[in-house]
Write a structure and sequence with these properties.
There is one protein chain. The chain is mainly beta and about 160 residues long. Strands 1, 2, 3, 4, 5, 6, 7, 8, 9 and 10 form a ten-stranded mixed sheet that branches. β9 and β10 form a beta hairpin.
């Protein structure tokens, strides 16, 4: 019985000592290594409540494979990555599939090409303000990007 008590006491005393040896737990680095997002801006639709478009430049500089799978926008009901493609013999906006990024590549999300549609944006999203867009990548990685909000018709 005394052996069990001694063993339990030794264990209780040893745990804090062992934990102290390990130092602080490693902290996760913010953002996705190798990903740079610049020139991010949301252009509101001329009619309130219609989807807003988000444009930006996405650069990647890492040797590890990475794919962009989706986006989300703070203050919007949902977000969809769109591109233009042919459907029914007509050019239309279609949802973009998962996008593989290559080292040294910059992908431009711009009018007439790739863009993020912020669906059912909140009336609180106003020109001159800002919001956040989160880009979701393979492996559960996320990059949170500040986005300036512009009125419809402003320089895109």
């Amino acid at each position: 019985m005394s052996r069990q008590i001694f063993a339990a006491a030794a264990l209780v005393l040893a745990v804090p000592t062992l934990a102290a040896c390990g130092g602080d737990a490693p902290t996760e680095e913010a953002g996705v290594p190798g990903v740079t997002v610049s020139n991010a801006r949301m252009v509101l639709a001329p009619v309130a409540g219609n989807p807003a478009a988000i444009y930006f430049d996405l650069s990647y500089d890492s040797d590890r494979p990475l794919a962009l799978s989706r986006a989300s926008v703070k203050g919007a009901e949902s977000a969809v990555i769109h591109k233009y493609g042919m459907w029914n013999e007509q050019e239309q906006m279609v949802e973009a599939s998962r996008m593989t990024l290559n080292k040294g590549e910059t992908v431009k999300f711009e009018p007439g090409g790739l863009h993020v549609m912020a669906m059912n944006p909140s009336p609180e999203l106003k020109a001159g303000g800002s919001t956040e867009m989160t880009l979701h990548f393979s492996g559960g990685k996320e990059e949170v990007v500040p986005v300036a909000i512009q009125a419809a018709g402003e320089d895109r």
